[in-house]
Design brief:
- By secondary structure, the protein is an alpha+beta fold.
- It has one domain (about 5-190).
- Helices cover about 50% and strands about 10% of the residues.
- The protein contains five helices and six strands.
- A three-stranded antiparallel beta sheet has the order 2-1-3, with helices on one face. It has a three-stranded antiparallel beta sheet with strand order 5-4-6.
- The longest helix has 21 residues, at about 55-75.
């Protein structure tokens, strides 16, 4: 592990400590039929009346921090082999990793919300829109199923693009090369 990777790991640990010290809370109001609405971030060891930790959003925050830490460790690694012997980590793959990290952060900064009066128990609830997380969301509830779907799709697409842009190893043969080789083998067998 090089120095840049140690710094990235330290930043990830500091972020984890910060989000665990100030987790997201939902406010439960009797006026709204005990429907939890997003209340903000509060100190974990403080006294919070009518507030409960939003465990789903906290889990997503932890997942995004860990995924971004893994991406940073991949981006900051030193390639041990010369360029012609390297099997991964080209520019396109690095760009994909950076875009995935940026997308995950934007998804958490602008999560889907729904107004508390429109809350249903449907599998995929409706949502009002994407709002800035640190804005006034006292009348809204996070729609965690949609947020989970967003994060999952970004990770799947990033993984597929990572595989698409990987370098071909010398052992891998292109389709044209495989056809030419097969024709040579057939011609040699006929002789």
């Amino acid at each position: 592990m090089n120095n840049a990777q140690r710094i990235a790991l330290a930043v990830a640990v500091a972020n984890l400590v910060l989000i665990l010290a100030f987790p997201p809370f939902d406010y439960i109001s009797l006026q709204r039929g005990n429907i939890p609405t997003f209340g903000g971030f509060y100190f974990a060891f403080g006294s919070h009346q009518n507030r409960v930790v939003n465990a789903n959003f906290l889990a997503l925050e932890i997942i995004v921090i860990l995924v971004n830490a893994c991406i940073a460790l991949l981006l900051l690694r030193k390639p041990p082999l010369p360029q012609h012997q390297r099997s991964g980590g080209n520019r396109q793959q690095r760009a994909v990793l950076a875009l995935v990290a940026i997308n995950l952060v934007v998804i958490l900064l602008f999560p889907p919300f729904e107004f508390f009066s429109a809350i249903t128990k449907a599998v995929l609830p409706t949502f009002e829109g994407f709002y800035f997380l640190f804005g006034d969301n006292s009348q809204r509830q996070l729609v965690t199923p949609i947020l989970y779907i967003e994060v999952t799709l970004v990770l799947i697409n990033g993984a597929l693009l990572w595989l698409l842009f990987r370098d071909k190893t010398p052992e891998e043969v292109a389709a044209e090369q495989a056809r030419a080789l097969a024709q040579r083998v057939r011609a040699a067998q006929k002789k």
